[in-house]
Every structure is written in structure tokens, then in C-alpha cells.
Design brief:
GO terms for molecular function: catalytic activity. There is one protein chain. The protein contains six helices and 14 strands. By secondary structure, the chain is α+β, with helices and mostly antiparallel strands. Helix 5 crosses helix 6.
Length: 297
């Protein structure tokens, strides 16, 4: 990806992409750097010739980053606070089909570890090159994927499905009916397949209105960008849950102030000296204020 930073930023600006997970960056180090056009890349890599993962953010979201976890050169995550929503963005790069089983299992173990560290009430979006085919159709797997994969499932694709079931996630790409050209994420010679996926929690799938492959961009060799449109739903508190405020300003009125003193003295059992237990006293004062002065509606 060296030398591609600005090209990537221009593409994100052109396609109106706010957050992007990238893999096989091949940038050594553990940093965050501006790549131009108002975008910043958070990345991690240990070898300039292989692997490496990253997350690119539009500049306005950089200030929302609360935590960056660089687990390995195949898994990293960012936690963002957007309004009242905690959003965890995970970038993953699974081992290729020909790699040793031990290396493949290490990747899934790291991804499991990241997922288990995220509270269940927080959003999670995974953008990853899983190097596997989940396949077309969803018989027996309806709870985690739709029907619109590509071709047949392989062992690595089964690992993706198993992970989704284990973590209660949904394979977003497969829920949207598109022409095959907008489902194929990898093209090389005569090979056309789907290995790059976006996953989210099953319960948040309703927040995603579309997902497809972008055709015509050539930033990444062979791989094609998968984009989804997601609208975070902020749960507003019901009016009854909003804390009502005591109208302390009424104490400026002499008659209200005098009534408050009398009621407070009665509530304290006629004592002039306040009790030693401040918490109890404070609650008595607050309750008296609510009764005498009223609260906001």
C-alpha cells in the first residue's frame, strides 16, 4: 500500500466513505498518520513485505476515537463514541488458504479475543479479508447470513460462518440481492469470488440499508472495495426517565424560603444542628426541596 495513501483518500472522498478497513497494508509500525484529503490512517504492521491492517477515518471522526487495539498484524480495532453510541470498528486479515492450520486458528483466536472484550451493548462492525467463500444460499445458516453469496462454500468460508454463529454476528454482504458483479470482491485472471466481508451484530442489521461491491476503483490490486450504508440509531431516553430538576431558584422568594426552612426543620425532627450523617441529611434536603419548591416537568 506504500504510495497509495493519497489515492485511497481521494477514492474515499469521491465515494463518500467515512470509515474504511484496509488489509495487507505492508506498512511497518504502530502509528496514525494523515493520508491527505482530510483522512487519517491508524495502522499496525511488523513486516514491510507482508500482512498489516488498518482503519482509515474521516478527520471529523478522529476526535471520537477512545481506544485503539493493535492485536497483531492481522487484527486491530478502534472504539469510537459517536453521539451516544459506542462503535467498535475491527479490521481483519485472515490467513490464506494454503497457510498452516495453526496460523489460521491464531487469527480466529485473536478475533474472538477482540469480540469478547467488547460489551454486548456496543456496536461492532468488522471489515475483513477472510480469504474464504461463505457461498451462495443459506440453508441451515439463516440466522447469520442471507442467500446472496458467491459460488460454493469452502473450509475457510465455514470458519467465517462458525464465527458469526459464535459471536451472534451477521454476514452483511449476503443479505442484499445484487448482480454478481456487485458481489464479487476478488478478481484475478479468470477467478471471480467473494472473500471480503462486512459483519455486524445481528441485532443491528436493521441499521444497514445497503451493501455492495464498488466497481471501477483500482486502489487495491485484485481486491474490490465493499461498502455499506449504516445509520446508527440513538436510543433517546423516555421523558419519564429524564431526571427532573428541583426548582431551587424559588428560594429567592422570601415566602418560599421561609416555608422551606420550616419544613426542613420538621423533617430533621426539630434539630437546629445537622446530623453527622451527611448523606442522610442531603437526601432530606433534596426531598424537602422537591415537596416545597416543586420540580421541572
Amino acid at each position: 500500500m506504500t504510495g497509495k495513501g493519497r489515492e485511497l483518500a481521494d477514492m474515499m472522498e469521491r465515494r463518500k466513505v467515512d470509515i474504511l478497513c484496509v488489509q495487507e497494508t505492508r506498512w511497518k509500525g504502530s502509528k496514525a498518520r494523515s493520508i491527505g484529503a482530510g483522512f487519517k490512517l491508524f495502522y499496525y504492521g511488523v513486516d514491510s513485505k507482508r500482512n498489516g491492517v488498518g482503519v482509515v477515518l474521516k478527520e471529523e471522526f478522529v476526535r471520537n476515537v477512545l481506544e485503539v487495539k493493535r492485536v497483531s498484524d492481522r487484527v486491530m480495532s478502534l472504539k469510537l463514541a459517536i453521539e451516544e453510541v459506542m462503535l467498535n470498528v475491527v479490521s481483519g486479515y485472515a490467513s490464506q488458504v494454503g497457510c498452516e492450520l495453526e496460523e489460521k486458528e491464531k487469527f480466529w483466536s485473536e478475533l474472538d479475543e477482540v469480540m469478547e472484550s467488547i460489551p454486548t451493548g456496543e456496536r461492532v462492525v468488522i471489515g475483513a479479508d477472510f480469504n474464504g467463500h461463505v457461498g451462495e444460499g443459506n440453508t441451515g445458516d439463516e440466522e447469520v447470513m442471507g442467500k446472496f453469496g458467491v459460488k460454493e462454500r469452502n473450509l475457510e468460508g465455514q470458519m467465517v460462518v462458525d464465527f458469526a454463529k459464535r459471536m451472534d454476528m451477521a454476514v452483511v454482504n449476503t443479505y442484499f440481492q445484487k448482480r454478481e458483479e456487485h458481489r464479487v470482491t476478488y478478481k484475478s485472471g479468470g477467478r471471480r469470488t467473494q472473500v471480503d466481508y462486512i459483519l455486524c451484530r445481528r441485532g443491528n442489521l436493521k441499521e444497514i440499508s445497503d451493501c455492495k461491491v464498488v466497481v471501477g476503483e483500482s486502489v487495491a490490486r485484485q481486491h474490490r472495495m465493499v461498502v455499506c450504508s449504516m445509520t446508527l440509531m440513538v436510543c433517546k431516553k423516555k421523558r419519564s426517565e429524564i431526571e427532573k430538576k428541583t426548582k431551587w431558584w424559588k428560594l429567592k422568594k422570601e415566602e418560599c424560603c421561609e416555608e422551606f426552612r420550616q419544613k426542613l426543620r420538621q423533617a430533621l425532627g426539630g434539630q437546629v444542628v445537622l446530623p453527622d450523617d451527611w448523606e442522610t441529611t442531603a437526601e432530606v434536603i433534596r426531598e424537602t426541596g422537591r415537596r416545597v419548591l416543586g420540580v421541572s416537568s
